[in-house]
Amino acid sequence: MDYLAVKHTHMAIAVLSIVLFYVRSFSRLGSGAIVKNKLVFIGSHATDTFLLISAITLMAIAKINPLEQTWLLEKIILVVAYIALGIIASKQQKTSIKVVFLVVTTGVIALIGKLAVTKAAFVL
After folding, report:
1. What's the pTM value of the predicted model, to 2 decimals?
2. DSSP classification of residue 122
3. Is residue 90 within a helix (H) or strand (E), and if so which, with residue range?
C-alpha cells in the first residue's frame, strides 16, 4: 500500500471524525435530536473504526513502534483521553459541565493535531 495514500486517507477521516464529534456535541447542548439519529450514531462509529484501521496501517507501513516513538505514544494516550472525555461528556446533564468538557476535549484535539504535525513529544 502507498504510504501517502493511507496518510491522506487517515487525515481526511480524522477531519470527518472531528466534525462528527462537534455535530454530536453541539446537538447535545441543544435538543439532542441529531445525536439520536441512527445514521449519525452508526456513521460516527464507522468513521472512528476506519480511523483506527488507517492509523494501524500507517504504523505498519512505516514500521513505527509507539514504544520507540514517544510522540506517537503521547498521541495514542491523548486519543484514549479524547474518547474517555467524550463518553463522560455525553452522560452529563448540566449544560455548563457539557461546555467545560467540550472546551477540554477541544484542547486535547489540538494537542493530538500538534503531535501529528510536529512529531515532537510534549512530556515523554
Report:
1. 0.89
2. S
3. helix 70-90
